[in-house]
């Protein structure tokens, strides 16, 4: 796994923009997701009303999170499951390891889980002699490449088919080197064949959770490949890794949010599999895990409650904001440098790792507002990004040159008479420098502009000068 | 046309003031043709958005108070920009404690504030403008106008009434051009990538003119088009609606 590189954002961006394969992969995918979501949304007249309901459900939960967490814990225990509270990633890793050790586990299979990424679980398991095997196809691919997911729901979206073929040939050396892998279905089949054996051999299965239901103690996962079901039903032990804000009060609430989840994510009405787990195997059950554990991770989330950032905890990780973000689509997910990329990542990451360790992320947005427009949970993402910028401003975390420049500008802008004179001089000087060409190739202090585009020159006099001349 | 002439304070916007006064005068013409009395409050400078979006809430608030004071007493504040109008409509009230006089004043100004094409169509019920402008044009929706103020059909409707204008829709007209205020100089590489995509869509329409309602976006796209050597002309929507084809397009020689 690569180290956190959120503060190397600019370097990451340069690399991403120069990476032809990445750029190809990104052009292919973004528009497809957008078109599918648009279609799904148009087919459901009550879509926006459901978004309101979904928002209200989560707001209610966040306002009463303590109560719902306790109710949930009691219900899980009632159904024979175990709940482990993890304040930090360390706590969560330790809890997983302890369960694995008790189960004498040599190998664990894993369904897709962003929390697993957040706590960097695979590395910890490997260091302790346990082999983790990712079973979601995208996660499997990036595990082979020792990478992080570049997208919340499509972890390998940054890769092209030929890159995956090369990885499979490199790793699956037991297979015929002359086999044909030129079509994507062949790659899928090969991964299936390899993974099938792992499901059966695994001692522990680890999944994430899209929802935790307080009234029943149920955890819910949505998947498209069915890998999550095999991961959680075949091994003796099932561990659910989830963060505390996954709670919803009732099954009814979960189904309301499910109606906007897949539509926002992939444009499906529903994912291929929506699986409910309530405790382990009961008497008379033909299959299922003997033990059922839930690890509830906080990792700074309770600090967000009650602040101007609370709305971020409504996120259901659908990825719609990524798909619609022109910045994400330009640079891909790895440029963001940690686990959660895209607009919501730029809100969440500073909360989890500290704004001083993620200075660029809230700034790398044009505030175009498309993320908020498509968010099924109506999270005001631009507003939260702006709040982070306010924190940076308060703590002097922005570049000194920018702060100084804006400070001077604001000082002048607050003095209209001085402002009139200053802008009149600036307009005249720049217009003269353009020598009637209407534009400048270079402007002092504006390298960021002229590096890639010409600078349109002022017409000469300011509007206010001309207005005085013409109207008085 | 309303029976009494509405008294409109023109919010020139800092970019139009300094870079392209012709947009301001086009706006004045449109408003006067529609029966308004137009004045230009002298104390106005900038709406404060650069400070606000840089996390400097205090300066943004001070600039908001300046605008609120400068536009007291006008029936309307009209701006040739969805971005500045959006700032006033959506964000000024956030600066003040609900229930305070300042908050009430901010809400009052927000109710009186409009972007120019939406003011003409929604408030004054203008259906057509009397203007000529020879252009095969494509329209870019600037983000703030579109998503903060819901402006989409208004400029297109008015443009289609201009004699000589034919409109061709581009793919992804609603996707950001990569301007984003200080974003475009802080992250020129990303901005450039966004511009490349935008310009590919503009060129694919075969239009000879690019029109939008915000000078920031227009300067960004014009700057890139000219750097690439493109012949596509770039214009603010107010100039086209006012039939001002004599002023050279943005970033072009006199």
Largest sheet of chain A: 6 strands, parallel
Please identify the top-level CATH class of the largest domain in chain B. Alpha Beta
What percentage of residues of chain A falls in helices of 4 or more residues?
40-55%
Weakly predicted, low-confidence segments of chain A: none
Strand fraction of chain A? 5-15%
Q: Strand sequence of the main sheet of chain B, in spatial order?
A: 2-1-3-4
The chain-level structural class of chain A is alpha/beta
CATH superfamily of the largest domain in chain A: NagB/RpiA/CoA transferase-like
Order of helices and strands of chain B: EHHEHHEHHEHEHHEHHEHEH
Return the structural class of chain B: alpha/beta
Q: Tell me, what is the CATH class of the largest domain in chain A? A: Alpha Beta
The number of distinct structural domains of chain B comes to 2
Most extensive chain-chain interface? A-B, 62 and 70 residues
**How many structural domains can be distinguished in the coordinates of chain A?**
2
Q: Given the structure, what is the number of helices of chain B? A: 13
Q: Write down how many β-strands of chain A occur, each being a DSSP E stretch of 2 or more residues.
A: 12
At CATH level 2, the architecture of the largest domain in chain A is 3-Layer(aba) Sandwich
Give a description of the structure:
The complex is a heterodimer of chains A (472) and B (254). With 472 residues, chain A is of the alpha/beta class. Chain A folds into two domains: 36-302, 3-Layer(aba) Sandwich (Rossmann fold); 408-471, no CATH class. Helix content of chain A is 51%, strand content 11%. Chain A has 22 helices and twelve strands. Chain A has helices at residues 9-18, 20-42, 47-63, 65-78, 89-102, 114-118, 121-127, 137-144, 161-171, 184-201, 227-233, 251-265, 301-304, 320-323, 326-331, 342-353, 370-374, 381-394, 400-413, 416-433, 447-450, 463-471, and strands spanning 82-86, 107-110, 131-134, 204-207, 211-213, 218-223, 237-243, 247-248, 273-277, 291-297, 439-440, 455-456. In chain A, the strands form three sheets. In chain A, strands 1-10-7-4-2-3 form a six-stranded parallel sheet, with helices on both faces. Chain A is globular. The relative contact order of chain A is 0.13. The mean pLDDT of chain A is 96. Chain B has 254 residues and is α/β, with parallel strands linked by helices. Chain B folds into two domains: 7-122, Rossmann fold, CATH 3.40.50; 127-241, Rossmann fold. Chain B is built from 13 helices and eight strands. In chain B, the strands form two sheets. In chain B, strands 2-1-3-4 form a four-stranded parallel sheet, sandwiched between helices. A four-stranded parallel sheet of chain B has the order 6-5-7-8. Chain B starts with 6 loop residues before the first strand and ends in a 13-residue tail after the last helix. The model of chain B has no long low-confidence stretch (mean pLDDT 97). The interface between A and B is large, with 62 and 70 residues.
């Amino acid at each position: 796994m690569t180290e956190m590189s959120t503060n190397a954002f600019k370097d990451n961006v340069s690399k991403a923009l120069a990476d032809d394969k990445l750029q190809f992969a990104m052009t292919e995918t973004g528009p497809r997701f957008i078109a599918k979501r648009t279609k799904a949304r148009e087919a459901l007249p009550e879509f926006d009303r459901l978004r309101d309901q979904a928002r209200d459900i989560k707001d209610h939960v966040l306002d009463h999170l303590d109560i719902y967490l306790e109710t949930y814990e009691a219900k899980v225990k009632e159904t024979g499951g175990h709940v482990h509270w993890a304040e930090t990633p360390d706590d969560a890793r330790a809890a997983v390891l302890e369960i694995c050790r008790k189960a004498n586990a040599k190998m664990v299979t894993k369904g897709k889980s962003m929390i697993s990424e957040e706590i960097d679980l695979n590395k910890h398991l490997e260091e302790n002699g346990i082999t983790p095997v990712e079973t979601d196809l995208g996660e499997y691919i990036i595990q082979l490449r020792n990478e992080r997911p570049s997208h919340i729901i499509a972890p390998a979206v940054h890769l092209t088919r030929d890159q995956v073929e090369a990885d499979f040939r490199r790793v699956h050396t037991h297979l015929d080197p002359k086999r044909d892998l030129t079509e994507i279905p062949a790659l899928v089949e090969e991964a299936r064949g390899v993974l099938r054996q792992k499901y059966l051999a695994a001692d522990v299965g680890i999944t994430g959770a899209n929802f935790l239901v307080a009234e029943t103690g149920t955890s819910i996962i949505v998947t498209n490949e069915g890998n999550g079901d095999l991961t959680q039903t075949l091994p003796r032990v099932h561990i659910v890794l989830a963060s505390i804000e996954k709670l919803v009060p009732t099954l009814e609430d979960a189904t309301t949010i499910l109606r906007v989840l897949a539509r926002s994510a992939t444009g499906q009405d529903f994912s291929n599999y929506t699986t409910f787990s309530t405790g382990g195997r009961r008497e008379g059950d033909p299959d299922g895990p003997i033990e059922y554990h839930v690890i509830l991770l906080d990792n700074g989330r309770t600090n967000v409650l009650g602040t101007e950032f609370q709305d971020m905890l409504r996120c259901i990780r659908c990825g719609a904001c990524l798909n619609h973000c022109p910045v994400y689509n330009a640079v891909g997910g790895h440029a963001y440098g940690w686990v959660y990329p895209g607009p919501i990542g730029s809100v969440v990451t500073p909360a989890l790792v500290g704004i001083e360790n993620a200075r660029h992320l809230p700034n790398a947005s044009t505030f175009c507002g498309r993320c908020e427009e498509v968010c099924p949970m109506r999270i005001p993402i631009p507003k939260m990004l702006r709040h982070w910028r306010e924190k940076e401003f308060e703590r002097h975390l922005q570049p000194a040159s920018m702060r100084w420049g804006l400070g001077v500008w604001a000082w002048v802008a607050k003095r209209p008479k001085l402002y009139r004179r200053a802008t009149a001089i600036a307009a005249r000087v720049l217009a003269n420098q353009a020598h009637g060409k209407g534009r400048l190739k270079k402007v002092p202090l504006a390298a960021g502009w002229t590096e890639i585009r010409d600078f349109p020159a002022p017409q000469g006099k300011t509007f206010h000068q001309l207005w005085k001349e013409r109207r008085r | 046309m309303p029976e009494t002439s509405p008294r409109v304070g023109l919010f020139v916007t800092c970019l139009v003031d300094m870079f392209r006064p012709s947009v301001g005068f086009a706006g004045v013409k449109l408003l006067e043709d529609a029966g308004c009395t137009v004045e230009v409050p002298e104390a106005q400078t900038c709406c404060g958005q650069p400070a606000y979006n840089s996390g400097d809430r205090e300066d943004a608030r001070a600039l908001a108070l300046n605008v609120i004071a400068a536009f007291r007493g006008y029936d309307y504040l009209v701006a040739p920009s969805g971005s500045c109008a959006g700032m006033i409509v959506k964000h000024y009230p956030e600066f003040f404690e609900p229930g305070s006089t300042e908050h009430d004043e901010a809400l009052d100004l927000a109710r009186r504030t409009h972007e120019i094409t939406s003011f003409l169509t929604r408030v004054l019920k203008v259906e057509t403008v009397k203007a000529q402008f020879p252009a095969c044009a494509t329209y870019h929706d600037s983000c703030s106008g579109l998503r903060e103020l819901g402006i989409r059909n208004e400029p297109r409707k008015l443009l289609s009434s201009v004699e000589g204008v034919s409109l061709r829709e581009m793919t992804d007209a609603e996707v950001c051009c990569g301007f984003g205020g200080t974003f475009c100089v802080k992250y020129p590489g990303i901005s450039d990538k966004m511009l490349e995509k935008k310009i590919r869509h503009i060129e694919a329409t075969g239009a000879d003119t690019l029109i939008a309602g915000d000078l920031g976006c227009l300067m960004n796209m014009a700057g890139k088009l000219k750097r690439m050597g493109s012949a596509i002309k770039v214009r603010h929507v107010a100039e086209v609606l006012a039939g001002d084809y004599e002023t050279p397009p943005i970033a072009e020689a006199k």
